[in-house]
Amino acid sequence: QVQLVESGGGLVQPGGSLRLSCAASRSISNFYHMGWYRQAPGKQRDLVATITTVGATNYADSVKGRSLISRENGKNTVYLQMNGLKPEDAAVYYCYASSGTYTYWGQGTQVTVSS
User: Fold this and answer.
1) Angle at 69 between CA 79 and CA 103, to 5 degrees
2) Fewer C-beta neighbours within 10 Å, C or N terminus of the chain?
3) In 10 A of CB 10, how many CB atoms?
4) Which residues pair with 57 in a beta bridge?
5) Cβ(109)–Cβ(7) under 8 Å?
6) Are β-strands 46-52 and 18-24 bridged in parallel, bridged antiparallel, or unpaired?
7) What phi and psi values does residue 23 have, to the nearest 5 degrees?
C-alpha cells in the first residue's frame, strides 16, 4: 500500500529547532489529510498538526504559533518545523496519512529536548 518513513528527530536543546520529514513510498495525492501525532512515555498519542491536499492546516494549542506543517506533493513528503522546543515536546513523533477510508502510520522518530 504505502510506507511512511519519518526522519529528522534527535537531541535538541530547549529553545532549539527541528525539522521533521515524512517521506511516502508513493504519491500522496490520494491522502486528503496528512500530519503528525506524538506520544510521550506513559501518555496517549496526541495530534500535533494536520494539513490537507489544498494546504489547510490545523495545530494543537500546545504547538500553535511555533510550529509549521507543510506538504510537498512532488516529493511525496510532509514536513513539521518546530521552533522554540520545550522539554514537554519530547516524544516519539508519528506521521500519518488518511484517505478518508484508511489511515497509515510511520514508525516514528524520537525527539529529545534536553540540555
Assistant:
1) 75
2) N
3) 11
4) 51
5) yes
6) unpaired
7) -100, 125
Question: C-alpha grid cell for residue 51?
Answer: 494539513
pLDDT tens for 30-75 read: 899 999 999 999 999 999 999 999 999 999 999 999 999 999 989 9
Q: Write down the residue that cell numbers 495545530 correspond to.
A: 59
What the block records as the C-alpha cell of 60 is 494543537
What's the pLDDT band for 1 if we cut at 50, 70, 90? confident
